[in-house]
Design goal:
By secondary structure, the chain is an alpha/beta fold. A six-stranded mixed β-sheet has the order 3-4-5-2-1-6. The protein has 14 helices and twelve strands. The protein folds into three domains: 101 residues, Gyrase A, domain 2; 140 residues, tRNA modification GTPase MnmE domain 2 (Four Helix Bundle (Hemerythrin (Met), subunit A)), CATH 1.20.120; 148 residues, P-loop containing nucleotide triphosphate hydrolases (Rossmann fold, 3-Layer(aba) Sandwich). It is flat and about 85 Å long.
């Protein structure tokens, strides 16, 4: 346990209706007694008057005390629920500074202490950071699954099964002549290892799904000049993001807006009209448009409705959109026909977009970070080695390496070098 007792504002920016200040460490209860004369009953909210050293009233606050190890950090912890004034919080911090052994918390220090004290693992830490940063419903769901132990249970369950398999193999190697050791463990071990390998492979294939939820589903609006790209972007965003004129080539660079569509983060990009041009600035915009199309998860390929256009095969990530339905007849050459002026067809287009986004989501128990994917890939390689024919001792070593890779994801094995990077992502007070 750390010798320092730390304090910080753990709620939102001031001023606010309520400010929550968290105090954690061996001197937490003594500091509380200094301010109110005693420590309230553990786990019960108590309304108390806070007083300065000169006995003048600082504020009234709800105070909740948590005794180690039954707290977020695993240490003695006290939360002060104060009036959300900058002056009130500053006055409380001034009192804390005057008490020996107390200091302000560093970024992520509460979460790091929780990890060091075995209250949470690294996957849960990262999920907690994602939960705090979540902006859409699906980001919240992904973070909850990760931060509340769903992924950790999956990975440690696999690691435990691999450890058991390795133990059975080593028992056969070391005690083959003993009566209480099975003569052959091949059937019960390698079938289970193969099952874990298949499950792990299927699990890693869903990594792109988590990336889409965390970083957004990238949709590029492309097409020739004056097809209505910027107008569509403004209509989907429900505000004026792009300049709309009748002059071809108005959009020279890529414009971007983030949307929340039914809980999914969608990143929408408007691009320069694709055509032959002698203008060097427009040529650069067109080059960037082609690059954006290549990197997109979905392309809305716009074209003003033309009765002579024939339906053609197109890439699976493309939706053909016929525009200006208010002045043209609907055509079956397109996946959907729309009019931004009359809003006709826009709801159908939104439904098509949501169908594509939902199809990319495979579920919440998926690896959500590159760090996870790297160690999962390592574990998969080690399992593939273990399943190959060869000496049992080498295959057992491959199982040990696979379990260790899974342990590094949760922080159970050799991750000291990662800790500063992970916890530095937190705000002060968490």
């Amino acid at each position: 346990m750390s010798l320092d007792t730390i304090y910080a504002l753990s709620s939102g920016a001031l001023p606010a209706g309520i400010a929550v200040v968290r105090l954690s460490g061996p001197e937490a209860f003594a500091a509380t007694k200094h301010l109110i004369g005693h420590v309230p009953s553990i786990g019960r909210a108590a309304l108390r008057t806070l007083r300065r050293q000169d006995h003048s009233v600082l504020d009234q606050a709800l105070i909740v005390a948590f005794e180690a190890p039954a707290s977020f950090t695993g240490e003695d912890t006290v939360e002060f629920h104060l009036h959300g004034s900058r002056a009130v919080v500053s006055a409380l911090f001034a009192e804390f500074r005057a008490i020996p052994g107390l200091r302000p918390a560093e970024a992520g220090e509460y979460a790091r202490r929780a990890f060091n004290n075995g209250k949470i693992d690294l996957v849960e830490v990262e999920g907690l950071a994602d939960l705090i940063a979540s902006e859409t419903e699906m980001q919240r769901r992904l973070a909850i699954e990760q931060g509340f132990g769903g992924l950790s249970d999956l990975y440690m369950g696999w690691a435990g099964r691999l450890t058991r398999s390795r133990a059975l193999i080593e028992a056969e190697l070391d005690f083959a002549d003993e009566d209480d050791v099975p003569g052959s463990v091949a059937d019960q071990v390698w079938a289970d290892v193969a099952m874990i390998h298949a499950d792990l492979t299927a699990h890693t294939s869903g990594s792109s799904s988590a990336e889409i939820i965390r970083d957004g589903f990238k949709i590029v609006i492309a097409g020739p000049p004056n097809a209505g790209k910027s107008s569509l972007m403004n209509a989907l965003a429900q505000r004026d993001v792009a300049i709309v004129t009748e002059v071809a080539g108005t959009t020279r660079d890529i414009l971007h807006v983030d949307l929340d569509l039914d809980g999914y983060l969608v990143r929408l990009y408007d691009t320069a009209g694709i055509r032959d041009s002698e203008d060097r600035v427009e040529q650069e915009g067109i080059r960037r448009a082609h690059l954006a199309v290549e990197q997109a998860d979905l392309v809305l390929m716009l074209e003003e409705i033309d009765s002579n256009t024939k339906r053609a095969s197109r890439p699976s990530k493309t939706i053909a959109v016929g525009t200006k339905l208010d002045v043209h007849s609907r055509s079956t050459a397109y996946d959907v026909c729309i009019s931004v002026s009359s809003d006709e067809g826009l709801e159908d287009l939104r439904d098509l977009i949501l169908d594509r986004v939902r199809a990319a989501w495979t579920g919440s128990l998926v690896p959500s970070r590159d760090r996870h994917l790297r160690y999962l890939t390592q574990a998969s390689h080690f399992l593939a080695e273990a399943l190959e024919d060869g000496p049992l001792d080498l295959r057992a070593e491959s199982l040990r390496a696979a379990a260790a890779s899974l342990g590094r994801i949760t922080g159970r094995v050799d991750v000291e070098q990662l800790l500063d990077v992970i916890f530095s992502q937190f705000c002060i007070g968490k």
